[in-house]
């Protein structure tokens, strides 16, 4: 991820100075939340963001502000629901053939901001742009199973995708990050045209994007007249701007801020549970964690409630060493692991690891990772092991820990369990940090994604998760809430996990 110089609070206030009266709706003394939606007004949303080189190309979206702006202006064929399963959006429905190698998508009747209809040709052109081998779009890996040469438009509202292999989870690909539909032939995004709930008005790179209501939106016009994204990279700047009435929405606040201002009459705290998993990753292909007894000992040494309380200030839930708590197919019936020092000490002796010092690589690349590593190192004391916390370069951390070391801090946002497995746990996965390589596990994945019956497919995912829980390398100790703050007169902000359909979804928000 590219890093840009941050704006100070003074710089942020300079951006918001001089806004029109329309932009100041509800910004003085907050009023009580209204029971029914009200139309009108401008909502100003503060995000950390890019710099002067940022663009509005939705296929280049990477930062949270870019994702939020893209979903305001554009649509995908599908998006992820609250349980992180794919839900139809521009696709009215989808239907596979018998062997799951061809999928027919029916588009709903929607129009772009210039009044032209969204057609099957626009879908194919958008995916062809993403899959262009000369480009480096993030969504390319998600769409790579499409055989584009043999895919076709049946008519203006029907597209048929040919796949390279049977894949029952194809809707997950349609919902993947960055898979937005743009008009055929679009390359200039200085004044972007999408089909989303808001249309473009103006853009100052690194500072502000102003959008207006799309009255022709297929799901109904937004309540707001205008939506403005403003950049404030420092969390304190976003918080103070909200408290001072310069914005009505502040994205990505810390648990400490939420705890300090939760009872404030100038701020409402909105939490999105299960938005980010917090973990330690152990590599199975090298000492010392090629020994399953030592891995089990590490699982039993973790005091998960203490990690959640201390690192997340209570803004989260304990984990059970499995990804996707609360998501579709999550194996919630597996008993919760708890700390057991005596059993851990026995397993450490059995592994011949008593007296060993283990390096735990961590970084400030994600909030709370260094703190969690330090707390875990303290929890391990008295077990016969010593954890040495090593803080690395935040700019190269993820690439470094993918290859090097034996144990590292890990964090991930929400995604379907199938996507997590495909990206991180197959022998061929490009980001397999734990080096979990099991041919029988790979075979189970192929069985799951080629099983049409949902109940039978769920049973296969459950078997895979039992294997990971017993022998895997992820010590997933907690699931963090995503936290935003709003002015007291803002309603309709959803509590869906970050990166899902209803996260940062401003067409359903209104000012009281």
From TrEMBL:
<protein>
    <submittedName>
        <fullName>Peptide/nickel transport system substrate-binding protein</fullName>
    </submittedName>
</protein>
<dbReference type="InterPro" id="IPR030678">
    <property type="entry name" value="Peptide/Ni-bd"/>
</dbReference>
<dbReference type="InterPro" id="IPR039424">
    <property type="entry name" value="SBP_5"/>
</dbReference>
<dbReference type="InterPro" id="IPR006311">
    <property type="entry name" value="TAT_signal"/>
</dbReference>
<dbReference type="GO" id="GO:0015833">
    <property type="term" value="P:peptide transport"/>
</dbReference>
<keyword id="KW-0732">Signal</keyword>
<comment type="similarity">
    <text>Belongs to the bacterial solute-binding protein 5 family.</text>
</comment>
<dbReference type="GO" id="GO:0042597">
    <property type="term" value="C:periplasmic space"/>
</dbReference>
<dbReference type="GO" id="GO:0043190">
    <property type="term" value="C:ATP-binding cassette (ABC) transporter complex"/>
</dbReference>
<dbReference type="Pfam" id="PF00496">
    <property type="entry name" value="SBP_bac_5"/>
</dbReference>
<keyword id="KW-0813">Transport</keyword>
<dbReference type="GO" id="GO:1904680">
    <property type="term" value="F:peptide transmembrane transporter activity"/>
</dbReference>
<feature type="domain" description="Solute-binding protein family 5">
    <location>
        <begin position="87"/>
        <end position="415"/>
    </location>
</feature>
<dbReference type="InterPro" id="IPR000914">
    <property type="entry name" value="SBP_5_dom"/>
</dbReference>
């Amino acid at each position: 991820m590219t890093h840009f110089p941050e704006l100070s609070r003074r710089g942020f206030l300079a951006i918001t100075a001089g806004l029109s009266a329309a932009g100041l709706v509800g910004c003085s003394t907050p009023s009580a939340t209204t029971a029914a939606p009200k139309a009108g007004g401008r909502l100003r949303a503060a995000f950390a963001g890019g710099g002067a080189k940022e663009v509005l190309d939705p296929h280049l979206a990477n930062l949270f502000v870019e994702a939020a702006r893209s979903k305001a202006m554009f649509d995908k064929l599908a998006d992820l629901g609250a349980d992180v399963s794919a839900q139809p959006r521009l696709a009215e429905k989808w239907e596979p053939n018998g062997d799951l190698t061809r999928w027919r998508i029916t588009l709903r009747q929607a129009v772009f901001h210039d009044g032209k209809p969204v057609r099957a040709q626009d879908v194919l052109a958008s995916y062809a742009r993403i899959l262009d081998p000369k480009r480096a779009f993030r969504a390319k890996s998600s769409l790579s199973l499409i055989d584009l040469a043999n895919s076709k438009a049946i008519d203006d509202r029907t597209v048929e995708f040919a796949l390279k292999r049977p894949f029952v989870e194809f809707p997950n690909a349609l919902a993947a990050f960055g898979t937005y539909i743009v008009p055929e032939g679009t390359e200039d995004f200085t004044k972007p045209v999408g089909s989303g709930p808001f249309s473009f008005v103006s853009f100052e790179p690194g500072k502000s994007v102003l959008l207006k209501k799309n009255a022709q939106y297929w799901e109904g016009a937004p309540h707001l007249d205008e939506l403005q994204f403003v950049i404030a990279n420092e969390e304190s700047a976003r918080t103070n701007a909200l408290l001072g009435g310069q914005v009505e929405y502040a994205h990505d606040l810390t648990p400490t801020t939420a705890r300090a201002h939760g009872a404030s009459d100038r701020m409402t705290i909105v939490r999105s549970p299960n938005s980010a998993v917090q973990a330690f990753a152990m590599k199975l292909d090298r000492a010392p964690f090629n020994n399953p007894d030592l891995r089990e000992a590490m699982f039993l040494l973790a005091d998960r409630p203490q990690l959640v309380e201390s690192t997340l200030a209570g803004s989260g839930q304990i984990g059970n060493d499995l990804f996707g708590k609360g998501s579709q197919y999550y194996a919630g019936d597996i008993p919760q692991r708890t700390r057991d020092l005596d059993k851990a000490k026995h397993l450490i002796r059995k592994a011949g690891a008593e007296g060993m010092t283990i390096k735990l690589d961590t970084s400030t690349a994600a909030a709370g990772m260094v703190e969690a590593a330090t707390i875990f190192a303290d929890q391990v004391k008295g077990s016969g092991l010593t954890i040495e916390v090593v803080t690395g370069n935040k700019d190269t951390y993820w690439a470094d820990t993918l290859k090097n070391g034996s144990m590292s801090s890990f964090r991930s946002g929400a995604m379907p369990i199938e996507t997590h497995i495909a990206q991180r746990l197959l022998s061929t996965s490009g980001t397999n940090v734990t080096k979990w390589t099991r041919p029988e596990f790979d075979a189970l994945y192929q069985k799951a994604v080629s099983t049409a019956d949902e109940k039978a497919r769920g049973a296969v995912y459950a078997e895979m998760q039992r294997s990971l829980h017993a022998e895997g390398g992820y010590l997933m100790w907690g699931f963090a809430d995503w936290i935003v703050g709003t002015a007291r007169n803002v309603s309709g902000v959803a509590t869906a996990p970050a990166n899902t359909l209803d996260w940062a979804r401003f067409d359903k928000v209104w000012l009281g």
